[in-house]
Amino acid sequence: MKNSKWVSVILSVGALDAVAQVAPQDTGKISATVEVEKIEVISTRPQGIHISSDQITTMPGGFGDPLKALDALPGVVLALPSSGGPIAQPAIRGSSPGDNQYESDFLPVGYVFHREGLSVFNPELIETFDLYTSSWSGQYNDSIGGVIKTQLRDPSFEQTNLILDLSQIRSGLLIESPISENIAFYASYRESLVHHFIDDITEDEDFVFSTPPRNHDYQAKLVWDINSNNTLRLVATGAEDIARIEFKPGSREVQRNPDLASGEGFTSKYDNVGVLLENQSGLGDTILALNILDTEVDIGEGIVEQSVSQNTESLFKWKTVTDLSFGQLGLGELSWGGHYRQQSLKHTNRSRLVTCVAEFSTCQSSALFPIVEDKVDLDVTSMAVFSDWAVPLSKHWDATFTLAVSRDDFTDQTQIEPRVAASYQLAADQRLRLSAGQYHQWFRDTDLLSPVFGNPELSLSEATMAGIAYEQSLQGGWDWKLDLYYKTLKNLPIPLSLQTQNPEDVGFSDKGEGEAVGAELFINKSLVDNWYGWFSLAYTKSERKNGANDQVINYEFDIPVIANLVAKYQWNDNWHFGIKWTYRSGRRYTDIIGATPVYSDADDPANVSDEPIFYQPTYGEFNALRRSAGHRIDVRVDYYTNVFGVPVNAYLDILNLLGNERLQEEEWNADYSDFIPDYEFPDEMFPGLGVSIRF
Predict the structure, then answer these.
(1) For every residue of 116-149, which 3-state class applies, written as one string?
(2) What dihedral do alpha carbons 272, 493, 90, 206 form, nearest 10°?
(3) Residue 603 CB contacts under 8 Å (≥ 6 apart), including other chains
(4) Pairing, β 284-301 against β 264-281
(5) What's the confidence (pLDDT) of residue 82?
(6) 276 vs 196, 225, 317, CA distance in Å?
(7) So what's the pLDDT on residue 39?
(8) Chain segment 494-544, per-residue pLDDT in tens
(9) What's the distance, Cα to Cα, between the start and end of the chain in Å?
(10) Is 36 exposed, middle or buried (0-12, 13-18, 19+ CB in 10 A)?
(11) pTM summary value
(12) CA 606, CA 128: separation in Å to the nearest integer?
């Protein structure tokens, strides 16, 4: 969806759902030794940040979903769409929202967030997740933004558990049980119920849902501890999202773009099945994986775009960690492995030939372009090997040397990616870290592989990153870190017309470039003395450039200042309190300074006897303006108790406590003479009550 307000409605409904369904995996009780015990809820790593989900599930504003904590971490801009479109996605350190790599349990996944904004994983199963922002392992070789790795827990070998979540807009069932002494499994399925009452929520909108928004997801895992040296895991995950709208007569969307008269809709889904074998031998700890991933995206946006993308991916992947500390040699540790991947890509498209990349230019009205058709049917094979050698260099110095080499038979390009991360121990509680490396990624948009809609001769996008960080551990569970980084991007796809300076040229070039420089301060308090929290402050400057003429282009998600404060206090065994405060600079946008009528009689533009079929807006300088800065406070209160021996968690989650409004876009009328402001959800205080019962 490129220009739809209705996605905001789904986001709103998603928030309603989230405050009514999730409980933490434990009761949050604090033992008598808590004052001397340090529990790292969130901790820094050389490559980024590691989070344990046991406590983070009740973070205010997180909707009970641990992955929602991403928007409160340094280096992350939650890229809310300026004009509808897909859900918010994390843009990391100046890269684009689509430039991330997602993995769960050593395997790729189709997507991580439903269109409503919640993750596709049952929060009861999320054990940890990691955000890698630089110098990550060579096993991750498909990202110039960042890596988000989720680890789902294993099933219980001790007891059978049944967790039933029921609310007015989502239901879910999780069952786990041992099968024998060394075999156990779990299975989770969740289904949204918003389609039962969505019409009541959208009665004041200028559209109706012809196919109400629905989604579901599932996760299953079977673990067999074969013996002390071998463990077999069978995993399956999947999700599906679907919705379609029809516009009412007089809709502003259709008045601005008649191509949308037939409505908009989408279906996105994936199914993933994998087999993993973990082995311990004299060689080290090895994990072998076979995986099949099917993904499909079906977009119907009036006559602007009618496309279906299907990708079937077969993957063999392995990783071994070998201890090189032979006697007194102390050669460190070597992680090495690789993958062999086969992809069958099928893409059909009947759409307006709009060659536009929103990062680099304003997209003109689709009605000005012809409708063309194309099919992409490709089989792509890629291979990669990597090694990460972590070795102590001296009493104070240690380093990790990474080398990743990959090749695919579509581009016939070989990517060689050296990386290094070194650290110097300044004192027992202080460390200086240095990092540098190169990265690349496969095409994110299948249209780019088409000779009609794209350019099969494009090169893969690449990035070079360098950073320096200082970190210190303090008493009482405190630690802090200051990160400075610099990133350059190249081979980004841009419209060919920007390279040739001829607006009639269609297609794409790989002359796009980017640059980001920033500083991130992160202060963390582990769970000591009954409370934990963190504060992050990030400053960044990111921009894009037309490499053909070195023209600097303002980047939409160049958001200079982002601050986050999260704190959770466990007053006693029953009452827990939390607060989250966020501040961010406004996002860049392009102003509309006028409009030109477009008439049906194209052969005689001077004939204005008929009414114009639509108005073509006149734009000011691209992304020259910036929205106002804003802040928001979310709070949460949890009450834990037992009813007839059954653990119960009742909670109050209040979003946007102060009711602050942050403008997302202007909803213009037909001739662009007036607009209605559209604010980010929620634009007023939004309280929600919830109860979770564990059987």
Answers:
(1) CCCECCCCCCEEEEEEECCCCCCCCCCCCCEEEE
(2) -90
(3) none
(4) antiparallel
(5) 46
(6) 39, 12, 9
(7) 67
(8) 988 888 888 777 888 999 999 999 999 999 998 888 889 999 999 999 999
(9) 41
(10) exposed
(11) 0.88
(12) 65
235 or 328, higher pLDDT: 235
Mean pLDDT score across all residues of the chain: 85
pLDDT per position as a tens digit, 197-207: 776 666 667 88
The C-alpha atoms of residue 3 and residue 300 are separated, in whole angstroms, by: 13
- Give the pLDDT score at 128: 87
Confidence of residue 37 (pLDDT cuts 50, 70, 90): low
Residue partners of 606: CB distance under 8 A and separation at least 6: none
Q: Which residues have CB under 8 Å from 71's CB, separation 6+?
A: 78, 88, 90, 564, 582
Of 492, 519, 586, which is closest to residue 80 (Cα–Cα)? 586
Within 10 A of 403 (CB to CB), how many other CB atoms are there?
A: 17
Average pLDDT (39-52) is 75
Integer Cα distance of 7 and 116 in angstroms: 8
Strands 100-104 and 146-152: parallel
| 289 sits in which H/E element | strand 284-301
pLDDT of 454 reads 87
Tokens of 380: 């792509």
The whole-number pLDDT of residue 279 equals 96
Helix (H) or strand (E) holding 173: strand 170-180
**H helix and E strand count, the chain:** 5, 37
CA dihedral 389, 393, 397, 402 (to 10 degrees): -20
Contacts of 227 (CB under 8 A, 6+ apart): none
Q: Could you give the CA distance from residue 235 to residue 152 in angstroms, rounded to a whole number?
A: 10
22 pLDDT tier (thresholds 50, 70, 90): very low
65: which 2 tokens? Answer: 């979903």
Q: What share of the chain is helix, strand, coil (3-state, %, to 5)?
A: 10, 55, 35
Higher per-residue pLDDT: 476 or 29: 476
> What are the angstrom distances between the C-alpha of 357 and each of 5, 454, 621?
20, 11, 16
* β-strand pairing of 107-108 with 126-132: unpaired
Question: Lowest-confidence range among 407-416, 432-441, 521-530, 576-585?
Answer: 521-530
Bridge partner list, 519: 484, 539
For residues 446 and 380, give the distance between their C-alpha atoms in angstroms, rounded to a whole number: 12
Q: Give the number of other Cβ atoms within 10 Å of residue 82's Cβ.
A: 19
Q: What is the mean pLDDT of residues 271-276?
A: 97
Q: Judge whether 220 and 240 are in contact, CB under 8 Å.
A: no
Among 69-73, 137-141, 218-222, the minimum mean pLDDT is found in: 69-73
Residues with Cβ within 8 Å of 106's Cβ and at least 6 positions away in sequence, in order, are 276, 287, 289, 317, 319
Contact between 340 and 538 under an 8 Å Cβ cutoff? The reply is no
CA atoms within 13 A on the CB side of 385: 0
Length, in residues, of the chain: 695
Q: Judge whether 292 and 272 are in contact, CB under 8 Å.
A: yes
Cα gap 214→9, rounded to integer Å = 13
Q: How far is CA 69 from CA 63, 77, 91, 528, 545, in A?
A: 9, 12, 14, 20, 31
Q: In this predicted structure, what is the pLDDT of residue 644? A: 81
Query: Exposure string (b/e) for 147-168, b if CB count within 10 Å is 16 or more?
Result: bbbbbbbbbebeeeeebebebe
Rg (CA), the chain: 26
Q: Are the C-beta atoms of 655 and 579 separated by less than 8 Å?
A: no
